[in-house]
Design goal:
With 190 residues, this protein is mainly alpha-helical. The protein has a single domain, classed as LemA-like domain (de novo design (two linked rop proteins), Up-down Bundle), CATH 1.20.1440.20. It contains eight helices and no strands. The radius of gyration is 24 Å and the shape is rod-shaped.
Length: 190
């Protein structure tokens, strides 16, 4: 009888330790996703702060290209709104519009030699391009963290603990296909 009680107690202790280990692993994955999104958020805020300077610099040279500038400003507002709400899908869509707007702005700037020669414009263009590359890199790391979390909460036996403690899947940060397409420069000047 005593041996049976010891075996049952040992199994219960083993299962408890196993559940705690799974729980702690899931918590680690969840916080890893949050940390990686915070890294993206920092870069988005930095770019957000640089865009008004870029628009003002461009306004000095591109007086009649207001539509292009307006699209960048509107996209900036959409990104900020999506960030504030924490809506990853809306952020992905807004980021697509932002990247398209910046691509169009830089393409249109090619038609303004004085603007391209402006030192402030060149520095802002380099800074924003650098931020764009860093955002793309961090997005990849974020999506990897999301994937690790989402796979883990669906695997057995982790799925039992995940459901028991209400661990949720996260959305990938993805951009629409338009972002991947080349900017049609001819259409911009027709």
């Amino acid at each position: 009888m005593l041996i049976g009680l010891a075996v049952v107690s040992g199994i219960i202790i083993f299962l408890l330790i196993y559940v705690i280990t799974i729980y702690n692993g899931l918590v680690n994955l969840k916080h890893n996703v949050s940390r990686n999104f915070a890294n993206i958020d920092v870069l988005l805020k930095q770019r957000h702060d640089e865009l008004p300077k870029l628009v003002e610099t461009c306004k000095q040279y591109m007086g009649y290209e207001q539509e292009t500038l307006t699209r960048v400003i509107e996209a900036r507002q959409q990104v900020a709104s999506a960030q504030a709400s924490g809506d990853i899908k809306a952020l992905g869509a807004a980021e697509t519009q932002m990247r398209l707007g910046l691509g169009n702005l830089f393409a249109v700037a090619e038609d303004y030699p004085e603007l391209k020669a402006d030192d402030a414009f060149a520095k802002l263009q380099q800074r924003i391009s650098g931020l764009e590359s860093a955002i793309a890199d961090r997005r990849e790391v974020y999506n990897e963290a999301v994937n690790n979390n989402n796979v883990r909460i669906e695997q057995f036996p982790d799925v039992i603990v995940a459901r028991l403690f209400n661990f949720q899947a996260f959305d990938l940060l993805s951009f629409r296909e338009e972002e991947l397409a080349d900017v049609d420069i001819k259409a911009l000047f027709s």
